[in-house]
Design brief:
The chain has about 270 residues and is of the alpha/beta class. It has a single domain (about 15-270), classed as 3-Layer(aba) Sandwich (Rossmann fold). About 45% of the residues lie in helices and about 20% in strands. The chain is built from eight helices and ten strands. The protein has helices at about 15-35, 55-65, 75-90, 125-135, 160-175, 185-195, 215-230, 235-250; strands at about 45-50, 70-75, 95-100, 110-115, 135-150, 155, 195-205, 205-210, 255-260, 265-270. The strands form two sheets. A seven-stranded mixed β-sheet has the order 3-2-1-4-5-10-7, sandwiched between helices. A three-stranded antiparallel β-sheet has the order 6-9-8. α3 (about 75-90) links the parallel β2 (about 70-75) and β3 (about 95-100). α1 packs across α7 (about 215-230), α4 packs across α6 (about 185-195) and α5 packs across α8. The N and C termini lie far apart (about 40 Å).
Length: about 270
């Protein structure tokens, strides 16, 4: 299980690999959001909750040597990984700092853009992260966020109570840690309260069939996290095995599919 104040799902090697795969699966949606936000050559962008730096490095390629990307994350291991990845790829326009997203220490008006994905959902005070990031934006700067608006809305078909039971346990642990798996629904109001004008609210929702690359995405999470839930006593081994059996049944079913948890893309500007 994670250290206090660190990422809910840990920073171990398996999680680093999972996050790398996750970034590959969702890069199309991220890149489209960056385009809508106007990030490009010469932009100075904040990657809020940068994790191990996969997004940070892709943003650094986008903005080029005339721009820069600053990654901040509460995890020292993730920040070290971000720095190492940037160095390995020869990206001299990346800096990364250990900072708590809820109490950012950034200069006012420092950035042209802010991006964050699946970070606010784990915070106890996401509104503080939005407020701090908004202060760091220049006038005309844009913030674009991807986050879950109704995690409970994910769907595995054919449906099975063992799968739903497992998801209920995951969500209960999430909320117990202080997170909000529906934070996306609150994003527009939080942005407005931070002095930003919301320009667009876009749903992000995908469906995977067995054999699709996207089909593997939730499994990498479940394979990493459910054993930890069993070890902590939050889930029984029988519940985990029943969950896995329900997944295999859907995978073998000719009509089987997985619908990703509903997410929102919210884009806002600072005037």
């Amino acid at each position: 299980m994670p250290e206090e104040n660190e990422y809910l799902f840990g920073t171990h090697d398996d999680e680093l690999r999972r996050l790398g795969f996750q970034h590959q699966v969702w890069i199309r949606e991220a890149a489209a959001a960056w385009h809508r936000a106007g990030f490009g050559a010469g932009s100075h962008v904040l990657d809020l909750g940068c994790g191990p730096g996969y997004t940070t490095c892709d943003l650094a390629l986008l903005v080029g040597q005339g721009g820069s990307v600053t990654g901040v994350d509460v995890s020292p291991r993730f920040v070290a990984h971000t720095r190492a990845q940037a160095a390995a790829r020869g990206l001299g326009n990346v800096v990364a700092h250990v900072q708590d997203a809820e109490s950012l220490e950034l200069a006012a008006g420092e950035f042209d853009g802010v991006y964050s994905r699946w970070v606010l959902t784990y915070l106890r005070r996401p509104e503080e992260a939005i407020r701090g990031a908004a202060r760091a934006l220049k006038p005309g700067g844009r913030m674009v966020i991807h986050d879950y608006s109704h995690y409970e809305g994910l769907q595995l078909v054919p449906e099975h109570p063992a799968f739903r039971r497992g998801i209920d346990i995951v969500i209960a642990q999430w909320r117990e840690s202080g997170g909000d798996p529906a934070v996306g629904a609150r994003l527009p109001a939080m942005m407005a309260d931070a002095g930003l004008e919301v320009l667009s609210i876009t749903p992000v929702h995908r469906v995977a069939r067995p054999g699709d690359v996207l089909w593997r995405w939730p499994r990498t999470f479940f394979d990493n996290y459910l054993p930890a839930l069993v070890a902590s006593g939050a889930m029984t081994e029988d519940e985990r095995l029943a969950f896995d059996a329900a997944w295999r049944a859907a995978e073998a079913h000719p009509g089987g599919f997985f619908a990703t948890p509903p997410m929102l893309e919210v884009l806002a500007i600072r005037h």
